[in-house]
Amino acid sequence: MSVTRSVRRETASAEIPAVPLTTEGYSVLHQMMRVRWSAWRALGDNERREIAAEAAALLAKMEQNSAGQSALFSLLGHKGDLMLVHFRESFDLLNQAELQLAQLRLHDFLEPTTSYLSMIELGLYESTIKAYRALADRGVELYSEEWKREIGDTVARQKEAMHPRLFPAMPSHRYITFYPMDRRRGEEKNWYTLPIEERQRQMNEHGMVGRRYASEVKQIITGSIGFDDWEWGVDLFADDPLVFKKLIYEMRFDEVSAVYALFGHFYVGVRCPATELGKLLSGEVPAKAASRP
Questions:
Q1: Beta-strand runs (E) in the chain
Q2: 267 in active site
Q3: Alpha-carbon gap, residue 98 to 13, rounded angstroms
Q4: pTM score
Q5: How many Å apart are CA 211 and CA 131, to the nearest integer?
Q6: Per-residue model confidence (pLDDT) at position 10
């Protein structure tokens, strides 16, 4: 190996990028809303039924949408009455879902309380480090056309392998909890100044806890850097809400959460199928599904 190539290799090895690769799937929108109950109750029974039926028909189509589904939840607590979660293949289709809902007569009786925009994201720490080191060992110049091509191939292979996790069906569990979160960026503790290998170690430890709950909880992580006020969103779906408390409490003891995590508001809801919307707007808790695939 020539001296020049040896120097190139050492330089490339010292310049492994800090940013881990990611793969992205569905675009995701959470809409939290409050019902204007006094105005709703002022309507006649027939008008309420007609308005609810119109909304239920649209929601039923969204529940079965082949390009990403939607789901409605009845929220607990003061942060809102309803939460809609939409999975779509693009931001344009999310916007279309918003506009369709805005055309409903029911929309006149809803007030948005907040929303959250993100994309389903899977981090590739292990693949990132392997790919970066392999390219550095070969002396491939950082961010050269060859480097970009091979990194692109790595991401494409991972996206194909992880397609079911990136483009999932909407989980049909009865309960949901959603919360946004950040990684700490303070003067004393800053996640983004840790070496990539250390971040990988901590994330692997964190993931081990989640895997122990895999049979009870469906977890969907979404990335929102550049899209919303926090860096990630987390959706947990389960048939027993107690598991949310146990899982999140246990995860708080991981170093990555105990030292570097900041959490936003939590939103907890009960699944409301489109067929149950009329009952929900009449003051009834949505019926529990007979079975879950």
A1: 22-35, 70-75, 82-88, 110-123, 175-183, 218-223, 232-238, 261-263, 267-271
A2: no
A3: 47
A4: 0.91
A5: 25
A6: 42
